[in-house]
């Protein structure tokens, strides 16, 4: 059990570090794409490399962190613990956001940063992933019996001591957006290519 | 061969918008169905508005007696309890202990505490939680009456029809049915392995200065002797047993309007006791709205009469005092000694609630002249010099349906700590316990909603990713 705890702590620390690095690089690249108009250069190449490398390694480590996290308690304890459920939720959201970023980046390649829309989408995904990972890491200390104090910061925005649930309407809205966004992009890009 | 199954591109282009819309409708209907199915009715379910409550305590003792003083805010008048009113030519009883707050606001307030001298395992760390068990009365999964009535010990021997608080050491397993042998029960009691329960009741005792004396063993038992109240109903004649003696009170019955609208003060006769009662006269000219208390108060006797007390409701707060001999000489009491430390856990019932709809404290240490969470001060003579004794302020919380079996089971992440005697207060604060209790009580519904939130969040991000990938591929 102690080994699993130590392993989880190490993977969480490394995950956070990698993903913070990637987030910073993505923020810089998005700023360049949207405001500076810079489309080439060795710094841009380097930031793209950092963003991709950080996201790839960070996501692999995140999966490891989730796996080692599950070793801490029985699954039924996770499912009945308020903070634990919130931590799982934030962990999986982080995985979804970073997985999504990687899918977009690997599909678009380096030219991603030449397109404002895709750059902004990447920044949104990275920030979502970053906030999720910060949230899940900040409440982990409380679960381990060693609160870091960051949870109190997180509680300013979200009550971590209540299971995080969205109203049904908002759940539906998210799914509608999820279905509508690809359909919209498909038709919109179709029309653009016909023009 | 396959041509009938291949949709022409032009047809697909026309249909894909409709297919998307239909897909979304199917998803919405599925979600709505899932949510409706999850919001199913639960038995004995009611969440109070206030998940926390405040209680102030002072304790003092002299050479013979111990004195408790309590104060807590309780906005509504909570000294009305169980009545019979004449309606349509017959006597109708108001509902008894209800789910949550009493529908007619006719249920008494209470302050009570469990007391132990270190004999009961886990009481000093988990407090009253050790007495709450699966399938107890008023839990959502309570045992049916018939099941309890047929139980050889609780039903056949003791004549009970419900499962109430018990010490887990009186069971062979985590099931209420597995009561240890009679000889083992006797041995445990002889060794002091039980909890003393003091309960001040605003109606069923307070008007005559009595405090109920109970003890928790294999059941929530009353001490030997006679309680301060009994029922004012004759089952054979289907009528009340007693009515007010008009020579002493000036009336035969209360008015329903005065009772239901809480118009009576504590100086009025809102209760019935043998001192002010006479046998019920069915030939009296009873009128619509005549009201009689369903409980009649009497002088308690034996060990059940050990505790005296009085309470006054004023300015939206109760002020209650209790007193008892340090050593009652009775084997169903915990005797108190100078310079010793005890464990005590408090509860209050307010807002017309009974049974489990109370607010409870974590267990605390009570020091008789020694350092503790609550220090009882020694003084000569009486009354205690209350002004010189500081209040101990406690935050009480709604305990929900958390049972001892759940606390030490695999669903509770802190189960190992509980089993190792780690105090609940070591991991949780009283301020948050009410929230956790509600989370626990609603966990089935909550888990479904949580999964739905997680799935929709996940789908949302994946949808964005797919949109991004489409855009990226098209641009390439």
Task: Give me some keywords for this one.
heterodimer, A: 195 residues, mainly alpha, B: 476 residues, alpha+beta, ten-stranded mixed barrel, globular
Task: Write a brief structural summary.
Chain A has 195 residues and is mainly alpha-helical. Chain A has helices at 2-36, 42-70, 75-80, 82-108, 116-143, 150-157, 168-194. In chain B, the strands form 4 sheets. In chain B, strands 1-2-17-16-7-6-5-18-20-21 form a 10-stranded mixed β-barrel.
Number of helices of chain A: 7
Order of helices and strands of chain A: HHHHHHH
How many domains in all of chain A? 2
Beta content of chain A comes to: under 5%
- Pick out the low-confidence regions of chain A: none
**How many strands, what sense, and barrel or not for the largest sheet of chain A?**
none
Name the quaternary structure: heterodimer
Question: In percent, how helical is the residue content of chain B?
Answer: 10-25%
Q: What's the story with the biggest beta sheet of chain B?
A: 10 strands, mixed, barrel
Number of domains of chain B: 1
Average pLDDT number of chain B? 92
Low-pLDDT regions of chain B: 1-7
Distance between the termini of chain B: 36 Å
Q: What would the principal axes of the Cα set say about the shape of chain B?
A: globular
Q: What count of helical segments of chain B does DSSP give?
A: 11
